[in-house]
Specification:
- The protein is globular.
- Helix content is 31%, strand content 16%.
- The chain has one domain: Rossmann fold, CATH 3.40.50.
- A hairpin with a 7-residue loop joins strand 4 and strand 5.
- The strands form three sheets. The protein has an eight-stranded mixed beta sheet.
Length: 245
Amino acid sequence: MAQPRVFRQKVWDSLKAVARPDTRFHLSFSEFIPDFDGVEQAIDRLSSLDAWKQSTLAFVTPDNSMTEVRRRLIAEGKPFVMSTYNMQRGFLYMEPGKVKPEEAIFAAWLDGMEHFARPINLAELTHIGRFDFLATGASAVTRDGIRFGKGHTYFDLEWGMFTDLGLVDEATPVVTVVHDVQVVDEHMNASGTDIQSDYIATPSRLSAIERSGRRPRGIQWDRLTREEILATPPLTELAHMRGIV
């Protein structure tokens, strides 16, 4: 059975024809999840879901491919939370009405989020409501919804924190937005921390996934070193809440 790094390299080779280069990392896909040609059509499919239409609070990753998701949420006045890059500065909360419609595209960029949104910690998050859906990019995703990122596991950690705090549960939809070339046919067994997607949105289709089992809950603290916990502010906050450190 192929390993995730094999999936990623095959996809990265195909992505070069459709990816939109990053301003800092160009096409070095080991450093970022790229935006891509046709992302607008993929987001059209995401926004057709009831979870989007009825959303009062969403979670969106800081991937480049999520810029259009953030822009549309801002334009529609839907509040959302975004993690900062590698969670190094925790989370940002974009409240409705904070951005003029003509400024939505600028606010949706990562630098714009830092300017228009406000920092929010885990304790505050528990007071503003539960997430109605989570949207994320990926380096690659299998047809049965197993995602692979840049080689790190930040989304899985975020899910673990959110389940611990009661912000998401088994019924909360997870949508992965990717280009069609990022969807791979190979089968991959989910690990104990992998979060299986409910939907895959691409420029050509919206695929609904029948989950193979229950998702993991909470943080598996025994998989993390003290140094890793202390290097990630939200993990440190949750660890203090739970008396871990």
